[in-house]
Design goal:
alpha/beta, TIM Barrel, eleven-stranded mixed β-sheet
């Protein structure tokens, strides 16, 4: 058994920003959605409320320290922070900027550029755009220079053979992703002296493209989408809908796990991922999606099998991703809630201890 570095995705939207104040109401954070959630059918676990860490504000260094300390206590190696860049304008960056400035918490990290539109539907599609994502060669240059000068040079930043690891959420949205990646590498090496960049693409929306065909080094399974592959008809009474015409989508969590584990390791570098659970009704209400059948026990089995089936490509290329640490409004979190407590974190540690 070989060592694995478990990387948990972290959402920074747990503090107010002026843009969200304007779009969603004064003081809006992810907790706004979490606390307004209600059960929509018999047996529906909502609202999912935080336990040990409480309703934290990520502007506070104490909150960031507590989050990192909790993760490290259960063998999470590092965080993958979502990074929001819109043609030079950044959003939700205050906790990350403070983390960089203070050099705390002492937690390895990497960035994933969530490069899609912000819309009122929370899905990055074209309807009712709040903040549009645009691309240009000049923006490519500005973006990579900003990252090299402000982020990649941090001693905590995760690297592969000295090359900073940077992830793209939706590579298909770029007009010419190969050109962008080549430009980034040239600037990182020639202007900033990095030995290179280790560039990953997520398999968002279940795309299984060969990353090397686009100039990426590796692909990362986006397990939160993988578990949404199979519809199911749960045995719940949908009595809470009353007269409203619901559009809830029910997915079979266990079948999604089986599909993920049945996948053969591809020829190209590929890092597997697991997801604790899924329920985005806090964001989407009666138009949301609920993955039925998740549990700490099934998550533990998934993580164990995902690691067993994964490949360690080198001493540094040994990642397993967990999606996510704190996607509370999608019912997708390792952080303790009032129902399951530390169960998901305990399951994580019990598996990772056998692979370190």
């Amino acid at each position: 058994m070989s060592k694995r570095r478990a990387i948990a995705f972290v959402l920074p939207q747990f503090h107010p920003i002026p843009e969200n104040d304007a779009w969603w109401g004064k003081g809006f954070t992810e907790w706004t959605n979490v606390t307004k959630a209600r059960p929509l059918f018999d047996g529906h676990y909502q609202p999912q409320l935080p336990a040990d860490l409480g309703f934290y504000d990520l502007r506070l260094p104490e909150a960031r320290e507590a989050q990192a300390n909790l993760a490290k206590a259960y063998d999470i190696y590092g965080f993958c922070y979502y990074h929001y860049w819109f043609n030079g304008k950044r959003l939700l960056h205050r906790p990350l900027d403070a983390m960089l400035e203070l050099g705390r918490p002492d937690m390895p990290f990497m960035y994933c550029w969530a490069n899609e539109n912000w819309t009122r539907r929370w899905d990055g599609q074209e309807q009712d755009i709040l903040m549009e994502q645009t691309y240009s060669k000049e923006d490519d240059k500005a973006h990579i220079r900003w990252l090299c000068e402000n982020v990649f040079n941090d001693k905590r930043y995760i690297t592969v053979k000295g090359a900073p690891v940077f992830m793209i959420y939706r590579h298909s949205l770029f007009p010419d992703i190969k050109e962008t990646l080549a430009l980034w590498r040239t600037i990182a090496v020639e202007e900033y002296g990095f030995p290179g960049l280790y560039l990953c693409m997520t398999e968002s929306f279940n795309t299984h493209d060969d990353p090397t065909a686009y100039g990426f080094d590796a692909a990362v399974e986006f397990s939160a989408h993988a578990i949404l592959s199979y519809d199911c008809a749960p045995k719940h009474k949908r009595s809470f809908f009353k007269k409203e015409k619901h559009q809830l989508s029910f997915k079979d969590f266990e079948k999604g796990v089986q599909v993920s584990l049945a996948r053969q390791q591809p020829e190209y570098p590929f890092f597997r991922s697991v997801t604790p659970a899924w329920d985005n009704t806090p964001r989407k209400g009666i138009h949301g999606t609920v993955a039925v059948g998740s549990s700490p026990e099934l998550y533990k089995k998934w993580l164990e099998e995902a690691i067993r089936k994964s490949v360690v490509y080198s001493e540094d290329e040994n990642f397993i991703f967990i999606n996510a640490m704190n996607e509370w409004a999608e019912g997708n979190h390792l952080e303790p809630c009032r129902k399951y407590g530390l169960s998901y974190l305990e399951a994580t540690k019990s598996v990772l201890e056998n692979y370190t």
